[in-house]
Amino acid sequence: MGELKVHRVRFFDYMPTAIRAMAFNAHTERLALARMDGSVEIFNFTDHYFQEKVIPGKDSRSIESLCWVGGRLFSAGLNGEIAEYDLENLRPKYSLEAYGGPIWTVISNTQGTQLAIGCEDGTVKLFEVLEEHIQFERNLDRQKGRIISLSWHPSGTHIAAGMMDMIRVFDVPTGHAVQRLLVDRGIGGSKSRETVVWSVAFLSDHTVVSGDSAGKVQVWDGHTGTLVKTHLVTKWDVLALSVSKDESSVVAGTSEGTVIQFQFIAPTLHQQDKEWVRTRTFKNHTHDVRALAEIETAIVSGGMDTHLVVRPLLEKFDEKSHASGLRKIHFPHRNLVSCAKKAGLLLFQFPGQLELWRLGDSDGHGEKHTLSKKREMEEIQSISLTLFKQKGEDHICCSALSSCGGWLAYSTVSSVRIYRLQTDNNISITKVLPNPELAMTTKCIHILRYTSHGSVLVFQLHCIVPVYGSCPSAMGIHPTTNNLTMVHADQQLFEYSIVEKQYTDWSRKLQKQGLHNVWLDRDTPVTHVTFNPKNPNQVVLHDMHMFCIIDQSLPLPDQKTQFYNQMTLRSLSEQERPSHLHAFKICKTFQDLLCVSLLDDQSLVVVERPLLAITSQLPAPVRQKKFAT
Amino acid sequence: MAALYEGFTLCGLVPTQNASDSPIQGIELDGDSDHAVVTDSTRSVTLYKVSDQKPLGSWTVKQGQLLTCPAVCNFQTKEYVVVSDNKVIRVWKDEDLNIDKAFKATVSADVWRVHSAPGGEPVVLFQRGAVRLLDSLLSAPQQPIEDVLSEEEVIRWSTNIVAEKQHFVLFTTEQKGEHFLYVQRLNPNTLQKYRLEREDSGAPPLSFSASLRDKHINLLYLYPNGCVYQSVVAVRGPVELEGVQTLPRSLRLRLPVGEGKLGAASAVALDEAHVAVVGMPHPSARTGKDFLCIWNTNFQTLQAGKEMVGRIHGPVWCYLGKLFVPHGKALSVIPYECQKSSLASALGKLRHAGIAVSKSSVAVPSWNSLLHGDQPQGPAKIVDTRKSNGFIGDAQDLQLSVGQLACHLVARSQAETAFYTPGALAQLVQTQCLCHSVCPDLLLLALEHKDYFLCQLCLQLFPDIPEVVTCACLKTFIRSHQSIEMRLFNLCGGVLQTAYSDNFLLPHLKDLNAQQVILFLQYLQFVYLKFSQDVYTQTPGLRSPTMTQIIDWLCLLLDAHFTVLVMAPDAKGLLSNLESFVKSQVKLFSELGKIEGSLQELHKMKLSKDISQYSIEVIELF
Question: What's residue A625's pLDDT?
């Protein structure tokens, strides 16, 4: 393979936004997650936690709470609206003004017939869930002070509402408040500050669990309205609570970034009386844990530090497996960078804008094995920056750059726009209307949208690739052979000949022999597939932690082969090397990858976004580690 | 000042047949600072826990064998090393009960000493001058050992020093009445030979002591006539010198020997200014008794002395603030302390570090020279030589006449009650040519006349106000101003800035009554809080006392009156305030210390490879 020139790019200032809310649908095993910018992401927990759908945000939309009703997803936010999402077309289906001021929370009853929302004006509003719509039903007794959190009793007869300094229990049929649970304020200086009950949970035995801004997790008897137990867990806020399905465990997320588990167990051995006991503390976040879900085998958490953490509960696993490992999902499972291979241009996609950069010219002389030959950015006249400020409110879904660098396209949920680019000396942009000549480009954008179906639509339905059980995470069509290479969330790799309408021989051989375990054990999906225009045998793909050049002319590795063999090959002599080569050439020099692409001049472009750079842009955490503590 | 504290006996000694031999071959440190490895002159090595005066372990070689070198500790492996019968090197560990069962190796030449120091590998010095690292020697014990010394040359004393990753072995030899110093540098190995200057009497040096200071090796040696010389060898000195150099020396101390000469005396350097000497009579005690004395070599003064019962045997060892002295039938351990001696501490606390030093060279006149024509001694001389002679003459004339004028005015004021010239006196004080010792009555006169302006001027400008007068001023100020007000604030500020010595001030402070103490404490607390609040705006002008001065006074006052204050109900609030304040300060400083620690860690951290925002790199894939 030899030496490769690499453009190492670190100037894509991609910044994920904080996670605000999440809701887990135990039936479909989908996790819906809302971010601060109003975007909603759906993760498929049966398919390697793959981020299968993304509904882009909108400037005016804010989501405080998410709620599944069957397979339907609802959100409510501080803009005072309830919205339902079209999960097929990945856009909001409709939104409804609730006329109660900002909405803090939305929940549904177990039967899935009603929604309840908690409003700033102190009302709890009930909505009836209809086939295609929801309809306002009635208000429960209006309270003084905002309703921050709600929890519906599994029987549907009562609702617990977390407010300022108190919790109210409502009788749903009559709409009257039947209990008033006063929540203590914090001690010391915070005594003058109202306690916000950020989260409540209503259990079947009428136990109410609350988490508040004074750092307490409290257990109440919902029948009598008495306090049973107080756990002071943090100096700051307890922001989120989640109850396991069997109600034997409650987890609480705090501003310190910890997740604390409480279990309903007998505090001493061989005793019958059970109580809520604080058992474990998990610390996978540096900032506020704003959203939590306790699922069958894991605790899912997210917050200000923007990454989603799936922390498996190891006692639920019998052996070490793929599912028993800790998962942190930092980057979206899709491409935010596109590369014009001929022109050496990069397009970076932000929610509200696009950035176009030109790569530097290299001097053309092969620099021998200097891994860190660096030059200053200014020296290489590399940067010419153009901003496409997204007009209007909708955020960008996807964007693409043609390989010649002459065309640029992007889409939002409502429109597709195509521009003609001239980048010779001065960059100029002209908006053009879609015409047949450009259908290829727009189709590419559409293809990205269709990837969630498990099958792939090519062109004007030329053919349908056989359905596979896992979502494709990346794919590409070879420019010369017209072979479609697909990588799935379960790390399987297929090559399909569009001409012959069947899997290629190489793909069959690969499936027959099976992929190497090391390849299958990786925990981030491949997000980009590209090809070597000079060598049709070579496919370039990457995930977050590595890039791989697959050379189809080389033998496939079997399970006994050393998979990451670059270091070994380096130490071997020229004569010994050929016998040790295999098809997967993997490089882990570059980390936190957002894009790897091969230019026409055979140089690689590597776009890195170091996690440390993201962390450094976050606000200071409330609790900082002190020296020697 | 230096002080010798109450000592204790570490172990008893069995006198040797030959009276001039010490019953102890050597005392060495262990890895633990509280351990001492004592090797006697015959067969046994004992490990003591010094603070408990208790042996932790003892190892003896067989009857008929003889230890010929003191046991040392190998700090890297925590093993002990000793040589028996000149050629057998034995290495054992703490937990080994029997030394005979431990490792031993016979080498091909006679060993003089094994030396070890923290941070360095043990080295073996052979009697013929060759040096080997212990490890490399033990890997091939029978390796040939070369002769470095000539035929009749014998080693008299040796030591080793580890300095900045450099390891040195120093040894002195005697040949036909001449004495030489060898400095053997290890890694790379170089050997430098120096000739010691011959003392007039031709007598050999009685003892040597080497220490490392400011990247120089200081060698201190004592002759029987009482002269202590110091020679300096640079650690990073030029190594290309060929042949035998004469080692330059300087006389550090001339001990009063009286008639006759010293016998088995020994001198060891404690720090740059202090030397401990054993085996010489105390200058003011009757002869025939042996003393342990600490001398200040800068001022040639005896700083502390202690009588040692029984005869002192030869050398003395000094480790970590403790002197190990074998005398009579016991090995005594005597803790000592040497404070940095400087002219400043002799004069009193510095008023303002930096400013005061430059000023005092002018303002402190050498009265001896003015009044009696004596030549100033010691350090004053150095100051004088820097100035031009003409300037000195003028300044002295001015000081003399100003002094006389002031004395006359004060005398007349005292004689005639109506006569008092505050303006003239203030002008004289402001010339800064006047000080308290020239005209001792001036300040008291001003105090008598309640001329607080003049008092304040004197307090600020006189460098030599006795503590009793300072206290008298303080008392008067407090008495005449019963509430904290600005005037008192200014006056007391002057008091705080005067130079004083704790020991002299304390008895006078005790004369204050409880009410005055509380008032003054309130004042001090007020000033401290004020300054700690606007520490940045505080200018280093003459009028504001520094934080350190305030705290020193606070401490002194509390020391002097603590019992009274504890009993006084009025003081309760004040004391608890001070306590909480001190607590917060201590906490602050401990936090700052932690921050310092972690910042230092940051310094140590390897700088990660700096990767810029854009670079073109070349990788190789196979």
Answer: 55
Q: What are phi and psi of B523, to 5 degrees?
A: -60, -45
Can you count the helices (H) and strands (E) in chain A?
5, 47
3-state SS string over B504-570? HHHHHHCCCCHHHHHHHHHHHHHHHHHHHHCCCCCCCCCCCCCHHHHHHHHHHHHHHHHHHHHHCCC
Alpha-carbon gap, residue B419 to B125, rounded angstroms: 82
Q: How far apart are CA A407 and CA A404, in angstroms?
A: 8
Which of A360, A372, A569 shows the shortest C-beta gap to B617? A372
User: Chain B within 8 Å of A591 (Cβ-Cβ)?
Assistant: no
Q: What is the pLDDT of residue A438?
A: 35
Give the separation between CA B477 and CA B467, rounded to whole angstroms.
Answer: 15
- Record: contact B612-A374, CB cut-off 8 A: yes
Tokens of residue B263, six digits: 């016998």
CA–CA separation, B164 vs B169, rounded Å? 14
**Residue A434: cis peptide before it, omega within 30 degrees of 0:** no
Q: How many CB pairs under 8 A join A and B?
A: 87
B510's CB contacts (< 8 A; 6+ apart) are B560, B561
> What sign does the dihedral B375-B376-B382-B386 (CA atoms) show?
negative
Please indicate whether, in this complex, the C-beta atoms of A9 and B622 are within 8 angstroms of each other.
no
- Sequence-distant (≥ 6) Cβ neighbours of residue B8 within 8 angstroms: B53, B332, B333
* Sequence-distant (≥ 6) Cβ neighbours of residue B314 within 8 angstroms: B20, B21, B22, B207, B264, B266, B279, B326
Which pair of structure tokens corresponds to residue A265?
């167990």
Contact residues, B window 555-614, toward A, CB-based 8 Å cutoff: 594-595, 597-598, 609, 611-614
Q: d(Cα A598, Cα A547) in Å, to the nearest integer?
A: 11
Strand locations in A2-157 (E): 2-9, 19-25, 30-35, 40-44, 50-55, 65-69, 72-76, 81-86, 91-97, 103-108, 114-119, 124-129, 134-139, 149-152
Q: Residue A569: its chain B contacts at CB < 8 A?
A: 622
The H or E element containing residue B583 is helix B571-604
What kind and span of H or E run contains B379?
A: helix B379-386
Q: Quick check: B616 and A1 CB within 8 A?
A: no
Among A2, A10, A604, the residue with its CB nearest the CB of B620 is: A2
- Within 10 A of B593 (CB to CB), how many other CB atoms are there? 11
Residue ranges covered by each domain of chain B? 395-534+542-570
3-state secondary structure of B428: helix
Q: A390: pLDDT confidence band, cut at 50, 70 and 90?
A: low
Angle among Cα B437, B440, B445 to the nearest 5 degrees reads 155
Please check the confidence at residue B367 and state whether its pLDDT lies above 50: no
Return the pLDDT at A455: 35
Most confident range, picked from A151-160, B436-445, B539-548, B598-607: A151-160
Tokens of B423: 């303006």
- Give one DSSP letter per residue of A328-379, joined into a string: EE-S-SS--EEEETTTTEEEEE-SSEEEEEEPPPP-SSPPTT-TT----TGG
- State both tokens at A6: 């690499």
Most confident of A148-162, A309-323, B276-290, B608-622: A148-162
- Chain A, 368 to 427: residues with Cβ < 8 Å from chain B are 368-377, 380, 382
Category of A246 on φ-ψ map: left (φ > 0), alpha (ψ -120 to 50) or beta: alpha
Rounded to two decimals, what is the model's pTM?
0.55
Cross-chain CB nearest to A566 (options B611, B615, B621): B621
- The Cα–Cα gap between A285 and A240 comes to 14
* The predicted structure's pLDDT at residue A430: 66
Q: Do A549 and B621 touch (CB under 8 A)?
A: yes
Structure tokens at B110: 């006679």
Give ipTM to 2 decimals. 0.79
Contact A628 B594 (CB under 8 A): yes
